[in-house]
Amino acid sequence: MPIDNFLMRSPQDIDNTIVVGGLTPLTTIDYPGELAAVIFMQGCPWSCGYCQNTDLLPRKNENNIPWSYVLALLEKRKGLLDAVVFSGGEPTLQSGLESAIQQVKAMGFKIGLHTAGIYPDRLKQVLPLTDWVGLDMKSAKADYEKITGVKDSGEKAWKSARAIIDSGVTYEFRTTVHPDMLDKQQLSTLVNELTDLGAENYVIQHCVTTSCLDESKRVVTSPKLELAVVNQFRDKFSSFEIRNFSSS
Ligand code: SF4
User: Fold this and answer.
1) Are the CB atoms for 81 and 26 separated by under 8 Å?
2) Counting atoms of ligand 1 from 1, which one is nearest the CA of 118?
3) Bond before 49 cis per omega within 30 degrees
4) Which of 147, 164, 205, 232 is 20 to 30 Å apart from 1, CA to CA?
5) 8 A C-beta contact, residue 182 and residue 146
6) Which residue CA neighbors atom 8 of ligand 1 most closely?
7) Rg (CA), the chain
8) Pairing of strands 36-41, 20-27
9) Does the reported pTM lie above 0.90?
């Protein structure tokens, strides 16, 4: 669709094609180096045991926050914010994502996207509009279903990873480690698959377990991966970061 047609779409048109589940007016941690607002899209078809965004998982038809409200808030934040991040839930679930991003981009904001890569074709549509993408890489391709609960989910995530690298957009691939769901060997296999793919920017973060979707995952029974183990992957990437790991 030509850009002019995107911009002519009314907020009501957009409301029919996206469902906003939440909004954070200001954050410093969701888009590296930028002050950003975060728009949380409602709905996700996967059921990762460690998911923290449980309120955002159910698909809903009604919009919690009208798109006109989102645009009005962003209008007031022009000059105060650098970027707007589309997060979730899974933002690529929304058929109106491309139009929504186009409208926000036209307001002068950089566009960030958090995704698990669940809908690679829609991701490919919006990649040219994005300035930075954070993609969750949950496990080696063959082990994905153990985390997401969904057959062939690894195929989709890895297809999305390929599309992001090929697009040339600035990106971060990141893996959340819950010790009961990803052990040292599985993490090593994942890292090898990522380097084979040509990934250069990678973050490994330890899971916060207090509010896991699967209540049985709130108590960790396996030993926490040691910082030294995680650190051994540092040399495999141009940019590598570890979050929430202690040295003990
Ligand atoms: S893909 Fe993300 S939002 Fe969806 S269930 Fe998994 S962790 Fe939660």
Assistant:
1) yes
2) 1
3) no
4) 164
5) no
6) 51
7) 18
8) antiparallel
9) yes
The mean pLDDT value of the chain amounts to 93
Residues found in the chain = 248
Confidence of residue 14 (pLDDT cuts 50, 70, 90): confident
* Atom 7 of ligand 1, residue of closest alpha carbon: 51
Residue nearest to atom 3 of ligand 1 (CA): 89
Instruction: Find out whether the beta carbon of 90 lies less than 6 Å from any atom of ligand 1.
Output: yes
The residues, any chain, with a CB within 8 Å of residue 134's CB and separated by 6 or more, are 112, 113, 114, 115, 171, 172, 174
- What's the half-sphere exposure (Cβ side, CA atoms, 13 Å) at 26? 6
198-213 average pLDDT score: 95
Q: Which CATH architecture group holds 3-243?
A: Alpha-Beta Barrel (3.20)
So where are the chain's domains?
3-243
Per cent of the chain over pLDDT 90 is 86
Looking at residue 106, its pLDDT comes to: 97
